[in-house]
């Protein structure tokens, strides 16, 4: 088997959907998947080789996984000469905040540093509610997003609301309210 041109395929079950992809698409971007795919299989048929025995990804939606795959298969992440990009996926990056947020989450969860940074760059230029931007900044430690979001919240005319507490936590909202009071 050639090291470069013998692709291993893995089948994932996400919710009720099967995804069959070359394992290198994930392992090239994630040491988590690289470690998973390098584990010895023993004498039994390894998980992920057949539709009857897929790798089950629990707690992840098929929509979220598909958004990540769009980025991984995109020519923005894979080299342009990669031949494993299906035509229906090639060049179709996520477009909305709802599509990019799972990419941010999954790339963080699976230590996909380059993909995570790519998602941050794409999302940085998107119009986003300051509460949502701050919540993501706090969750994923995106420092460049923090001060602009905090300033926008401190200066917005609407008072802090229950929704803000639900997204940011009581301590953060109280700190923002304290700054607002000082204005």
From TrEMBL:
<dbReference type="InterPro" id="IPR011333">
    <property type="entry name" value="SKP1/BTB/POZ_sf"/>
</dbReference>
<dbReference type="InterPro" id="IPR000210">
    <property type="entry name" value="BTB/POZ_dom"/>
</dbReference>
<feature type="domain" description="BTB">
    <location>
        <begin position="8"/>
        <end position="81"/>
    </location>
</feature>
<dbReference type="Pfam" id="PF00651">
    <property type="entry name" value="BTB"/>
</dbReference>
<protein>
    <recommendedName>
        <fullName>BTB domain-containing protein</fullName>
    </recommendedName>
</protein>
């Amino acid at each position: 088997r050639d090291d470069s041109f013998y692709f291993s395929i893995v089948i994932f079950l996400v919710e009720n959907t099967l995804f069959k992809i070359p394992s290198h698409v994930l392992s090239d971007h994630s040491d988590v998947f690289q470690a998973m795919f390098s584990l010895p299989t023993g004498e039994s048929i390894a998980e992920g080789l057949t539709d009857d025995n897929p790798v089950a990804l629990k707690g992840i939606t098929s929509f979220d996984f598909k958004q990540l795959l769009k980025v991984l298969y995109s020519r923005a992440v894979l080299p342009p000469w990669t031949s494993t990009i299906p035509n229906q996926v090639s060049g179709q990056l996520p477009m909305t905040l709802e599509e990019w947020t799972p990419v941010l989450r999954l790339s963080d969860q699976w230590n996909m540093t380059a993909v995570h940074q790519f998602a941050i760059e794409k999302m940085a230029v998107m119009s986003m509610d300051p509460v949502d931007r701050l919540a993501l900044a706090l969750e994923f430690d995106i420092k460049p997003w923090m001060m602009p979001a905090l300033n926008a919240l401190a200066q917005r005319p609407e008072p802090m609301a229950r929704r803000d507490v639900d997204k940011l936590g009581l301590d953060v909202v109280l700190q923002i309210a304290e700054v607002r009071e000082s204005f």
